[in-house]
User: What shape does this take?
Amino acid sequence: MKVPFVDLRAQYLSLRPEMDAAIQAVIDETAFVRGKYVKAFEEEYAKAYGVKHCISCANGTDAIYITLKMLGMGPGDEVITVANSWISTSETISQTGAKPVFVDIEPDYYDINTELIEQKITKRTRAILPVHLFGLPAEMDKITHICRRHGLPLVEDCAQAHFAEYKGRKVGTFGVAGTFSFYPGKNLGAYGDAGCIITDDDELARKVRMYANHGSLKKHQHEMEGVNSRMDGLQAAILSVKLPHIHDWNRRRHENAIRYNEALAGIDGVVTPKLRPGADHIFHVYCIRADRREALAARLKERGVDTAVHYPTALPFLKAYGYLGHKPDDFPVAWQYQREILSLPMFPELTSEQIAHVAESIRSFFDGR
Ligand SMILES: *Cc1c(COP(=O)(O)O)cnc(C)c1O
Assistant: This one.
């Protein structure tokens, strides 16, 4: 049996007539960059989130960078973020000229460990940037409390957490802004790069929109220099077709995760993901921890199962951050887990048979069969 890590084609086939018509319409109307389809998607996304503004941009990395930049981050500033994430989270802090200050992850949930945030706050701290990694909301009660107490803006990296909720509230709406990626493999994915920022702050929305389009809101009126970070009409039209299905897809991912958890229960050598009380995990990634990870991944490969690691090197230990001089002891949990974590196939269309095959392959590996 083949079990791919993700199957984007299955989703396309389920939407094909509608999707093909939407794509054709953009081409017929040559609404290629920004334009009416982009405006329509921005309105739909803002409405779905119950926020005043959704500003589209070219990708999820730019969404973070543009937000931090327009919040005024720059040289001499520090932004607190989490030790395990995709590099966009920290790279964008550096792009503004600010310094990424990492915090270790929670042993149980893999998000930022809120117990360790305050000891990293200095006179230079200008913002906190948590990530809802794998689709599990970070501990938002604690984070919003810390931000309020220290007067720090909160920006949420929601690239892996479209419509995930914490205590009944959607992540991305807790702070001044939430940033999203619509990279094809994300829970809500385009057919190329795309991203957006959501906010209720009128002034931030105005600046972000301006900066993303060469510093202008009106043609040839450049109030500042900016960047070229725009969403394509094709991507917007594709996202508009997909948006009504996101809750169903997230629910199916969650059901698949519960099936995995049950099928993998009791295997000595495997730790399955925990569900945070009050948080709704949308399982962008289904991540286990396993003894002898490399051998297990090789066995799964032999049995037709693709896996991945998110991420094999935690951010502080990447060569890119060598200049910060971090040691394993600075982030002991991230250091230990980077050798144990293994992401199993996860997508809404995954079948019970596929899950059973993956689980049985893992069980037989640890049983020495
Ligand atoms: C995917 C991702 C991003 C960046 O999104 P792109 O659209 O690929 O630029 C940022 N943060 C996290 C946590 C991500 O997973």
About this structure: The pocket of pyridoxal-5'-phosphate is lined by residues 59-61, 85-86, 88-89, 131, 157, 159-160, 181, 183, 193, 195 (CB under 6 Å). The chain is about 35% helix and 15% strand.
